[in-house]
Amino acid sequence: MKKPHYSTAARQDLVGILQYIACDKPGAPVAWVEKVEAKCLLLASQPDIGELRSQLGTDVRCNFVGRYVIFHRKHGDTVEILRVIPGDRNITKL
């Protein structure tokens, strides 16, 4: 199975989200990481799923995990995970 490539910004997003979740529910971050990783693996094997968001860049698509949005795009023979942000955040300001 293909593995996704996480951008530096996406990795930073994930760390911030994990820290935020851990403040309220110390045991929850592990389960959340597993959900995100499962979705990213799906995206790596099926990169054309998700809504096309061309206003954010060439071939940028989005998918959801709970209230978070994963932005990704095909990059050669892999999928690049660009950002993972809360759905209520203004994406045009990123």
UniProtKB/TrEMBL annotation:
<dbReference type="InterPro" id="IPR051803">
    <property type="entry name" value="TA_system_RelE-like_toxin"/>
</dbReference>
<dbReference type="InterPro" id="IPR035093">
    <property type="entry name" value="RelE/ParE_toxin_dom_sf"/>
</dbReference>
<dbReference type="Pfam" id="PF05016">
    <property type="entry name" value="ParE_toxin"/>
</dbReference>
<protein>
    <recommendedName>
        <fullName>Plasmid stabilization system protein</fullName>
    </recommendedName>
</protein>
<dbReference type="InterPro" id="IPR007712">
    <property type="entry name" value="RelE/ParE_toxin"/>
</dbReference>
<comment type="similarity">
    <text>Belongs to the RelE toxin family.</text>
</comment>
<keyword id="KW-1277">Toxin-antitoxin system</keyword>
